[in-house]
Amino acid sequence: MQDAQKMPAVTEDRNAWKFGFTPQAELWNGRFAMIGFVAALITELVTNQGVLHFLGLL
User: Fold this and answer.
1) Tell me, what DSSP letter sits at residue 56?
2) Do the Cβ atoms of 54 and 47 come closer than 8 Å?
3) How far is CA 7 from the centre of its chain?
4) DSSP characters for 2-58?
5) What confidence score (pLDDT) does residue 10 get?
6) 28-53 pLDDT, tens per residue?
């Protein structure tokens, strides 16, 4: 029983870059989505037009 107490708990690095449907990939996806949303808001505030108009798609 003492051997089990000496072993450290193995935890996964939440910031690791892993591919596939993993919790780490979902964290990175959320972070990139937040950056994209803020970039879209800044674009709209600076140009006074929507992102699609700014890109010439609408």
Assistant:
1) T
2) yes
3) 32
4) HHHHHSPPP---TT----SS-HHHHHHHHHHHHHHHHHHHHHHHHHSS-HHHHTT--
5) 67
6) 899 999 999 999 999 999 999 998 89
| Contacts (Cβ under 8 Å, ≥6 apart) of 4 | none
Task: Of 18-22, 48-52, 53-57, give the lowest mean pLDDT range.
Answer: 18-22
12-33 b/e (C-beta count within 10 Å ≥ 16 → b):
eeeeeeeeeeeebeeeeeeeee
Cα–Cα distance list, 53 to 26, 34, 48 (Å): 30, 21, 10
Q: State CA 9 to chain mean position distance.
A: 26
**Tokens, residue 12:** 């996964």
Instruction: Return the pLDDT at 53.
Output: 92
